[in-house]
Amino acid sequence: MQGRYKKFDLTDKIAVITGASEGIGRDMAIGLAEAGADVIICSRREEKLLAVKKSVEKTGRTAETYVLDLQKVSEIAGLKSFIKTKTDKVDILINNAGHAVTKPAWDVSENDWDAMVDTGFKGLFFCCQAVGSIMREHGYGKVINLSSTFSKSIVPGRSVYAGIKAGIDHLTEALAMEWAPHGIRVNALIKKWTAGPNRTVAG
Question: Does 161 participate in catalysis according to the annotation?
Fold first, then answer.
């Protein structure tokens, strides 16, 4: 564990991170490893996951990779089974993956809607449910859902994305209340969005 993380000691904790192939998800995976955690990193992009795995292993911690399309609930169920084959517990879940489309509301297609909602909201919920059920078995866990400043504000072209992030905030509060008796803490972490083209955020 690197010295700068000493007061955030996560030695021997197990963390699951979605959207871990690049960007914030990649940095979180490496940061958690530097703080002492072993990680299970998920994304649709296997080649990039393997590169993150190498970076994690340079810290002296272990990384398992799982190729996951959050739009498919069956694959989320597969993630739970995969986790159970690798470890008997999960301490931390970070729901980072999302999909964003920049378009005027007039022009948003059903495919655009489904990609954004199924990845960023439906997929997030079922990841909470699947991984949270493992936490419940041990009476302990921490879930962090990545939200955005767009949950409270908006710019043109981000109507659906903003609605999803507002939904994540409210869902997080609901799960926090419901799961507290099971020793599971659920929080949202708001990130500031920077302008850019249509993109999948480490999905």
Answer: yes
